[in-house]
Amino acid sequence: MKSYLRGTTVRIKATIRDIDDTLTDPITTTITITDPDGTVRVSAVAMTNTGGSTGLYHYDWQTVTTEVRGVPMIKVTATTLVSGTTYTVIREEELFEIV
To answer: Residue 85: which of 5, 36, 19 has the closest Cα?
Structure first.
């Protein structure tokens, strides 16, 4: 498991695919980050499309020096205006911890 020091920037990446497993850009892609103690640090903030590539997104999380140590919970949500559309969100890296 990767470890990041408190006070550093962590780049969190996600790949978005549609039901046919094709890379796709949803209407919105957001991220929520929750500390191990249950404190929400980032709430439904927009992720950035990576270099204009379809379906590839990232978020640069600037941790603080007082960040709770441990493994945060990361939730990425992709939404569309079409009811019933299914997206698969794949995080590109394994779990990480803040030390």
So the answer is: 19
For 19, 54, 63, 99, the CA distances from 71, given in Å and listed in that order, are 30, 29, 13, 9
Contacts of 38 (CB under 8 A, 6+ apart): none
Q: Which residue ranges form the domains of the chain, and what is each CATH number?
A: 2-98 (2.60.40.1930)
CA distances from 17 to 29, 54, 71, 85 (A): 12, 9, 26, 11
Neighbours of 44 (CB within 10 A): 11
50-85 confidence digits (pLDDT tens): 988 999 999 999 999 999 999 999 989 888 766 666
The DSSP symbol for 85 reads -
